[in-house]
Amino acid sequence: MGGFGSGQRWSKKDVVEGRHAIDTASLKRWNLLVPGTTGRPGAFEWRRGGEGTASSSVSYFLTVGPTEGTLRLLYTIKSLTAELDYPVRLVTTPCHLGGVRWWFVCPLVRGNIPCGRRVRRLYLSGRYFGCRHCHGLTYTSSQGSDCRVYAALRGGLDFGRFRDVRRMSVAQLGFALKVLTFEQRRLDRVDRRLDRAAGRRRSKAVNTAHRDDIPSDSTDTDP
Asked: What CA–CA distance (Å, rounded) separates 98 from 115?
């Protein structure tokens, strides 16, 4: 199970809408997350439009304990001639009003580091189901907002627009926060690059001074 590369910084990410997804809320709604369940078989099915028969499906075996469980996924991707069979961990967190909330633990690995995020949904992209962060997915609504942020940055920031926050709507406040956060991250990156460049200059100066202090191997002799 491999990692996934990131896209270009300014390119649009793929969106979660329209992708096959599995959801712990669905398992809960189907009364499947019952402690004591062992190896219960089943299948997730997806249909296109109003089709009566499933266009694709993923089989599973479900095991549920008091606070943890395992969902073993089995499916074939014909276009990749790949047969997949791997487990996905299920874990719980307590709710404030009692009971527990179930989560998937993302099974993907990026850069030899397991993701391990607790998420409600896992999305199929490529060969494996994983969280939207590992797959580089976003929401259509967020993508539209990001376009507006990039446009605002390209047009130049007018911080005067953000002075009177009392007259701004919730949507305007959210947009302002995104623009300012994006700009702050950009400035932080520039600051880190400047720090690294200054560190390299200091290191070079120290090395040069050290070489100047080294005595010559040659010895003077009287004629």
From this structure: 28
